[in-house]
């Protein structure tokens, strides 16, 4: 099975989360365990080893942040961080409106790149 097919297949098997939870997180760290949890907000950072100024260090290059905004929309933002940049770059914003029965678009996706 191709890797992309596996990802799509796994997304179809999202477990039911407890009522009232706004987000779900599923994380697998090969060899070190897994996390499956429902939450009202989420902050996840992914670090990777870099060589910077002659020193080996861990740099958190991706940030995923999820929250409910003031209108009740559920928002997930994906940011890229680079040690050479002054600020983070938002590469995706995905919004859902689960409380709006008149909304016929399950997910709104904005892929505009935004700094800050």
Question: What do the pLDDT scores average to?
Answer: 88
Structural class: mainly beta
Shape: flat
Main sheet characteristics = 6 strands, antiparallel
Structure write-up:
With 116 residues, the protein is mainly beta. The protein has one helix and eight strands, in the order H-E-E-E-E-E-E-E-E. Strands 3, 4, 5, 6, 7 and 8 form a six-stranded antiparallel beta sheet that branches. It has a two-stranded antiparallel sheet with strand order 1-2. The longest helix has 10 residues, at 3-12. The radius of gyration is 17 Å and the shape is flat. The model has no long low-confidence stretch (mean pLDDT 88).
Summarize this structure briefly.
This protein has one helix at 3-12, and strands spanning 23-29, 33-39, 42-52, 55-68, 74-80, 89-96, 108-110, 114-115. By secondary structure, the protein is mainly β. It has 2 domains: 1-37, no CATH class; 41-116.
Features:
116 residues, mainly beta, flat, 2 domains, six-stranded antiparallel beta sheet, two-stranded antiparallel ribbon
Layout of helices and strands:
Elements: H1 3-12, E1 23-29, E2 33-39, E3 42-52, E4 55-68, E5 74-80, E6 89-96, E7 108-110, E8 114-115
Antiparallel strand pairs: 1-2, 3-4, 4-5, 5-6, 6-7, 6-8
């Amino acid at each position: 099975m191709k890797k992309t097919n596996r990802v799509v297949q796994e997304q179809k098997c999202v477990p039911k989360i407890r009522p009232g939870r706004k987000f779900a997180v599923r994380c697998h760290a090969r060899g070190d365990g897994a996390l499956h949890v429902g939450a009202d907000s989420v902050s996840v950072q992914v670090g990777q080893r870099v060589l910077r100024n002659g020193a080996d260090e861990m740099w958190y290059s991706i940030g995923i942040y999820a929250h409910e905004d003031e209108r009740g929309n559920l928002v997930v933002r994906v940011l890229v961080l680079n040690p050479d940049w002054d600020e983070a770059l938002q590469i995706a914003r995905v919004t859902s409106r689960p409380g709006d029965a008149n909304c016929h678009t399950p997910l709104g996706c904005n892929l505009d790149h935004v700094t800050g």
